[in-house]
Amino acid sequence: MDQQITIDAVRAEFARVFKLSDSLRVVRAPGRVNLIGEHTDYNDGFVLPMAIEPQVWAVCRAREDGIVRIASTLFPGQFAQWSLNDKIVPGNPKWANYCRGVTAGLLATGIPLSGFDALLINTLPMGGGLSSSAAIEVATACCFLAVGGLDIDMQRLAAICQWAEHQYAGMPCGIMDQTAVISSKAGHAMLLDCRDLSKDFFPIDAHDVRVVIINSEVKHELTGSKYADRRRECAEGVAKFKTRYGDGIRALRDVNLDQVDESKSMLGDVVYHRCRHVVSENRRTQEAADLLGKKQYDPVGRLMLQSHESLRRDYQVSCEELDCLVEETMKVKGVYGARMTGGGFGGCIVALVQPRAIEAVIDTVGPIYKDRFNRVPTAFVTSAAAGASIME
Ligand code: GLA
Fold first, then answer.
1. 3-state SS assignment for residue 298
2. Which of 40, 176, 308, 311 to mutate to test the pocket of ligand 1 (most atoms within 8 A of CB)?
3. Positive/negative CA dihedral, 27, 33, 39, 40
């Protein structure tokens, strides 16, 4: 052997013989909480989410053989594996379907992909309505980008992750979660126009206001029919508005509250209430963003509460546990507003509070909720985090 060989060359030789790439890559994808604008994204409407501190980390290393192998610290001992050269189909373990879907979606774009081994490390609870699935999708996509040295338009990546969720997890979600996970800015909430995907950022100054999340620990099952039912009811509304107001109505985004009210008998009771929620929520969301920008937290809080009421009565996606958390949180002095967040039927509430109210919220709401439902809710404060990134 050559006496002049360098350490780098020795390492490279080791990596070649043992088929290791020379470095581990580290990526992260945060969860998200939506401050207001619920069930509006699939109606071409407005949402106001921010990324949160709990997140999914992925440590990965390229493979030369076109195999993708993923493990998760949440499911010790389980490995999910597939080949970039075979048709990728949903399978077991189920949590890996998000990753399989992203692989298939990226392959379909024709971008040359490299396989990898990855370990997912979650500080984000799964199934809590904080976009753990979108975070897993985006973390997987970031692994592909990191090991392949690839670049892709971020909004296109969000669409691929959304497609993965539709096709591989059976959840017909809108575009909010994946966009928030990818495009959020630290210290800001993001007003996303789900029609043209334009984004405006509004500062959330931690000196003035804090975001508290309380998890009801009720697990929702959105892949079940309820989310899809709501989407169908909205589509029914749009079809009826079209017959009345013409083809200019492409989505509930294009309808105003007067039109909803004057169409009540045409829509029928259920569809009327669904449309009323979406149309009023779009307005609340734009107003809330504007007020947040002006640091007028009291009226933002009132809009959050109205949003909760609308989701509870008109859209019917809340539940007793979420209602109780909102009601008890609102009793604490220094709370501006609270509402259920995410798809509903369980999951979390989000509250906007004065910094001095944090302890009181966490100390008082938990015990009351536990007494009533015999479940311990988990509460935490979060600042607005940055969107997904490749760390190393
Ligand atoms: C889920 C979906 C989102 C959105 C919300 C409701 O989180 O993934 O696309 O529709 O529900 O606002």
1. helix
2. 176
3. negative
User: Could you tell me if residue 137 is inside a domain?
Assistant: yes
Q: Measured between alpha carbons, how far is 67 from 69 in angstroms, rounded to an integer?
A: 6
Q: What is the CATH number of the domain that holds 19?
A: 3.30.230.10
Answer yes or no: do 192 and 294 share one domain.
no
CB-CB neighbours of 79 under 10 Å: 12
Given a cut of 80, is residue 354 above it in pLDDT?
A: yes
Strands of 25-34's sheet, edge to edge? 79-83, 67-72, 115-122, 49-63, 25-34, 389-390
- Per-residue pLDDT tens digits for 10-69: 767 766 676 665 578 999 999 999 999 999 999 999 999 999 999 999 999 999 999 999
> Does 353 map to a domain?
yes
What are the tens digits of pLDDT across the range 315-337? Answer: 999 999 999 999 999 999 999 99
Are the beta carbons of 340 and 347 closer than 8 angstroms? yes
Atom of ligand 1 nearest to the CA of 40: 12
> 26 is in which domain, residue-wise?
7-203+386-390
Q: Ligand 1 centroid to 313 CA: how many Å?
A: 18
